[in-house]
DNA sequence: CATAATTATTAGATTAGTCTAAATTTTTAT
DNA sequence: ATAAAAATTTAGACTAATCTAATAATTATG
């Protein structure tokens, strides 16, 4: 007996979840409106509805935050989204820049069993094609340490473990430079004036802008 | 550049398609209302909208029929539904009585490439788990010959190739009697008063009601 | 701290899909 | 051929999600 939410409600919860992750303050109406590509007035209406259903805490003019129940639902949607992305890349041979839009739809499929069966079929992946962690059945999720390539010191080596920006453009850029999850990178030098860095990757030197390096999650080796 | 229909519109077109298959007359408002589990007045409204968009031909009080364009869309939905059902049964190990509801949702996922990639991943199945034919990419579909087990003469043998009723109850009944697609059946005798028949299957005799036998598609051997 | 700028909420419409109840048309049966 | 029954459409209302324009609250700034 699942609580039946509309796709729209689910999307709002997911957006609030992701905005909470990156700010720790209450989520503002305007920010949520931007994320949802809608108007602030629409957001206010929806927020009231979600508050009535106890998925968010809301006080007028003070933004929203997810309740325990709201968080649980948001994490479930994230889990579904990421598992479907793994399916699309690993089984259907999509590339990592093509799967997000389809997963946005698939994440709303309702079934008590489907996603667990899918997870098993995919052999319990821990991360999605963009390096984002996949919550388990109980909703536990291991968060990134959030070390960006831009903060790695000169002479240090690291492994690319995720992308912060999952836009198709960024991912295609990475493909073109042969940078992918698991790539080993050594920082050779850093320019002070624009924060661009020179890295060694695949035995070659490559110069990348700050814009790029600050969107790559790494693990220091 | 696909024409974007709502899920509801797609479901109406699919229902009209299936009702047209089983009657050859125009589809009446009442019949469509029953199929869609809605009211006749709602159907009238939707029919007008679909007629405006040229997916159906409609004259007041005279029922509807699909246009070429409407038919094309309906067949696409059927294709998606059936391929997803194959995925659920063959890859995720669902049984044939569990997949319909989930496929009802999955059939509405929009993507120009997804279903063709799925079809390839499934190795181009020709029939779904209930024996229904899967339209190809171009919308070509091979229809059943529609021979029912109930019409097979005594002493004749046949192979079960499909079910007309795909309800979970019926499918579970078949499972319990170990009747499945591909089963070879010989008609031993027929009762005149209730049309029940005795068949030989799996080297055993089994008596089945008319209700059952008229819902099984067969191929005479 | 007062006023301006920004942010958020409310008021009132709109669209899709649905419903009930009333009116109309078609079909069936005398 | 007419009246009764059944099917269908129309009228008017409701919910979910959205929008624009107007109002109100918060915050930033001189
Ligand atoms: Mn994604
Ligand atoms: Mn992802
Ligand atoms: Mn089905
Ligand atoms: Mn089927």
TrEMBL record, chains A, B:
Intracellular or extracellular location(s): Cytoplasm
PROSITE patterns: HTH_DTXR
Xref: Gene3D superfamilies: 2.30.30.90, Iron dependent repressor, metal binding and dimerisation domain (1.10.60.10), Winged helix-like DNA-binding domain superfamily/Winged helix DNA-binding domain (1.10.10.10)
Database matches in Pfam families: Fe_dep_repr_C, Fe_dep_repress, FeoA
GO cellular component terms, semicolon-separated: cytoplasm
GO molecular function terms noted in the UniProt entry: DNA binding; DNA-binding transcription factor activity; protein dimerization activity; transition metal ion binding
Swiss-Prot/TrEMBL keywords: Activator, Cytoplasm, DNA-binding, Iron, Manganese, Repressor, Transcription, Transcription regulation
InterPro entries registered for this protein in UniProt: DtxR_MntR_Metal-Reg, Fe-transptr_FeoA-like, Fe_dep_repressor, Fe_dep_repressor_sf, FeoA_core_dom, HTH_DTXR, Iron_dep_repressor, Transcriptional_repressor_C
SMART domains linked to this entry: FeoA (SM00899), HTH_DTXR (SM00529)
Taxonomy, superkingdom: Bacteria
Occurrences of domain HTH dtxR-type (ranges): 5-67
Keyword Cytoplasm: yes
Residues in coiled coil: none
Main function: In the presence of manganese, represses expression of mntH and mntS. Up-regulates expression of mntP.
Annotated family: Belongs to the DtxR/MntR family.
Complex and partners: Homodimer.
PANTHER family the record matches: IRON (METAL) DEPENDENT REPRESSOR, DTXR FAMILY, TRANSCRIPTIONAL REGULATOR MNTR
This protein's name: Transcriptional regulator MntR
């Amino acid at each position: 007996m699942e609580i039946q939410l509309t796709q729209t409600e689910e999307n709002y919860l997911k957006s609030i979840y992701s905005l909470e992750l990156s700010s720790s303050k209450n989520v503002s109406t305007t920010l949520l409106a931007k994320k949802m590509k809608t108007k602030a007035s629409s957001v206010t209406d929806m927020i009231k509805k979600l508050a009535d259903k106890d998925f968010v805490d809301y006080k007028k003019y003070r933004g929203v935050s997810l309740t325990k129940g709201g968080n649980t639902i948001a994490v479930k949607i994230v889990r579904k989204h990421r598992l479907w992305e793994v399916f699309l890349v690993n089984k259907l041979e999509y590339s990592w820049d093509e799967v997000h839009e389809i997963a946005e739809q698939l994440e709303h499929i309702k079934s008590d069993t489907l996603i667990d069966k899918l997870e098993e079929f995919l052999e319990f992946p821990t991360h999605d094609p963009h390096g984002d962690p996949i919550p388990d059945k109980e909703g536990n999720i291991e968060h990134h340490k959030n070390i960006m390539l831009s903060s790695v010191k000169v002479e240090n080596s690291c492994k690319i473990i995720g992308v912060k920006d999952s836009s198709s453009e960024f991912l295609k850029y990475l493909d073109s430079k042969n940078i992918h999850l698991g790539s080993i990178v050594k920082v050779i030098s850093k320019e002070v004036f624009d924060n661009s860095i020179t890295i060694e990757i695949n035995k070659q030197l490559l110069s990348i802008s700050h814009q790029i390096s600050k969107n790559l999650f790494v693990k220091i080796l």
